Amino acid sequence: MGKRSSQRKNAAMMDSDDDNSSVSSTSTMRSDHISVSVNEDMQVDKDSLLDQAVDALYEKRGSTREKALSAIIDAFNSNMQHQFVEKKFATLLHQCLICIKKGSSKEICLASHVIGLLALTVGCGDNAHEILEESLPVISQAFKSGSEVSKTSALLECLAIITFVGGSDPEQTEKSMQIMWQVVHPKQSSNVMAVKLSAAAITNMVSAWSFLLTTVDGRNLNFKDWQESITYLSSLLDRDDRSMRIAAGEALALIFEIGSLEKFSAGANTSSDASTEEGNKPREYVHIQGLKSKIINQARNLSAEAGGKSSAKKDLSNQRNTFRDILDYFEDGYSPEISLKIGGESLHTSTWSQMIQLNFLKRFLGGGFIKHMQENELLQDVLGFNPKKKNPSDSEHRLSGGEKRMFRSPNSVQSKARTQLLNKQRMLSEGKNIGRFAANMGDDA
């Protein structure tokens, strides 16, 4: 059966100016030397400005620290700051954590973003693990001190990024996902403030939680975890906010994509002599099918929702398109496809897992997305993007095609192999390798 007409292949052109980084082929030898000298001087100036920005984080005036953090973000977006990070990694992390502990909401947002950029720059290894270990208790405490949307969203994004990069075992990712979930569903015994969260905060939580869920091996979750997650996300589809609906719908599609829930629930309570005949399915299987049917009906309604007088056409169109894709997936098994052009090279996604990773990283990096995709080997391997290499020797430290597919597998079939490979990469490259980690999720909702 062919793909449904509503199954779309999206395309976008990401502009980049590759010529800016090279000297014109018509230049003379003298002008080449001049250009190189100017570029070196500019780099020295940029490094000096970064050093000054880090020094400014020690200032008492909050507005000074905020300007410094903004300058650091701009620098990390415009260039891969590997040399700077090697010199100032610990200092920058420490000062950003102080900003999160003591700063204003704006300062917390900026510092959280810097820490996320720092993690993406250092890549997998000891430094990324240190970022996660040092930041986790600070971020957890910051969640308990208030619920401003901008601050909560920035902390969630930061937690998602540093866990995605630095989480070296399932328990670490599980812990981060539990912290995210408790932002919306605080435990009675926790110190999280029991306040009514805005739609934007809930949407951002679901988005960050889904981003980490792309690394989860669904086979290791029990029925209770799946049931509570699906039930809650399904309830969000009935809320008024369209962004929340879209985030929840994508999360539900991802859960069913990675979970193999029919197989999982069919074997949940099956003993060695239990019947597997049709009509004698375990109650978990029946319950999962009931939830799935409800979600399909919700998706069908949302894919054809009529707009009201106050309805924004763009938001309504985004909702309709998303839920047509979700409906196609649940009914026919077709996932949405995305194709991006970045500097003349193509990046493709064909699963919910890949799409969620791509969209989350694009939102987080903003104007720095193109630069990172062109030069950040971690993101290139995570998203399966292969730009032309300027230096053939660069490939010595890259993963093979088979290894990349292993890391990107949405079904997490080779979870153990992935973890072993990452450990091997860390040992061989002293913490400067690339990859992503399979992880486990716990949900105490």
Protein model, in words:
Residues 391-406 have a biased composition (Basic and acidic residues). Residues 1-36, 387-415 are annotated as: Disordered. Residues 376-429 form the Interferon-related developmental regulator C-terminal domain. This protein has 445 residues and is mostly helical. It has helices spanning 29-56, 62-78, 82-102, 105-122, 126-143, 149-166, 170-184, 199-213, 223-236, 242-259, 261-266, 283-303, 313-332, 352-365, 369-375, 377-383, 401-408, 415-429; strands at residues 9-14, 337-342, 345-349.
Main attributes?
single chain; 445 residues; mainly alpha; Leucine-rich Repeat Variant; 3-stranded mixed β-sheet; globular; disordered N terminus; disordered C terminus
Indicate the proportion of strand residues: under 5%
Q: Specify the oligomeric state.
A: single chain
Amount of helix:
55-70%
Radius of gyration, in Å, reads: 23 Å
Number of continuous helical runs: 18
| Shape estimate | globular
What are the segments in which pLDDT stays under 50 over at least 5 consecutive residues?
Answer: 1-44, 269-278, 392-445
Report how far apart the termini are.
39 Å
The overall number of domains is 2
CATH topology type of the largest domain: Leucine-rich Repeat Variant
**Biggest sheet statistics:** 3 strands, mixed
